[in-house]
Amino acid sequence: MASLNLNYSRTVPNPIYTIPTFVSDDDQRCVNCLIEIPKGTINKYEYLNDIGLLKLDRVGYSSLAYPFSYGAIPCTLDEDGDPLDVMVVYETEKFFPGCLIEGRVIGVMKMVDGEEVDDKILVVPNNDKRYDHINEINEIPEYLIKEFTYYWTHYKDMKKPGTVSIEGFLNSNDAVDVIMKSIERYEKEILPKLK
Q1: Residue 113 burial by CB count (10 A; 0-12/13-18/19+): exposed, middle or buried?
Q2: Domain that includes residue 104, residue range
Q3: In the list 34, 76, 79, 114, which could disulfide-bond 84, CB 3.0-4.6 Å?
Q4: Backbone dihedral region of 139: left (phi > 0), alpha (psi from -120 to 50 degrees) or beta?
Q5: Is 9 a domain residue?
Q6: How far is CA 102 from CA 23, 105, 123, 167, in A?
């Protein structure tokens, strides 16, 4: 049985606040990823930050399904007030909501949603040998970049058209910078509020 070596408790620890950002202290290219939304669905699931339970936030407004698994990186805080988002670029089999995976950081998609910065860290599964050769954003097919851009540009078209803009895709070093800034924000704004 797997363990995070946490103390036993009658209450469920919130994974957003208890699982470390990085898989190990000496590797900033491998992050823990909490999967909220599996690839191929139109349902939007989100962790409730106060209790750590997954909730169906909404059913998508169109038939445009997520072309990747999607989730959050624990112990981070993006500029939009949520944990830093993560997109799993490849997966051999579909992940399920609530699954914890180790993701190797390959880049970041810079995005603005409703005038808020809403960056997306791109990862590949770190423990899947099929993707050992992928370490940077430029090592995935250009078509995937177009597909991701299309998805995010249009996913709100039936609700709030024209509110999302993709500013570009940057490499793994830039992604690690975004992660480090989100950790600093988390430590400043969230950590003091935790009991």
Answers
A1: middle
A2: 15-193
A3: 76
A4: alpha
A5: no
A6: 7, 10, 9, 26
What CATH number corresponds to the domain at position 38? 3.90.80.10
pLDDT in tens, 42-83: 999 998 877 788 999 999 988 899 999 999 999 999 999 999
- pLDDT, tens only, 107-151: 999 999 888 899 999 999 999 999 999 999 999 999 999 999 999
Q: Which pair of structure tokens corresponds to residue 121? A: 């860290």
Q: Are 105 and 172 in contact (CB under 8 A)?
A: yes
Q: How much is the pTM?
A: 0.92
**Domain presence at residue 5:** no
Quickly count: other Cβ atoms within 10 Å of residue 28's Cβ.
Answer: 19
Number of domains in the chain: 1
Q: Half-sphere exposure (CA, 13 Å, Cβ side) for 109?
A: 25
Radius of gyration of the chain (CA): 16
Residue 10 lies in a domain: no
Q: Is residue 125 included in any domain, yes or no?
A: yes
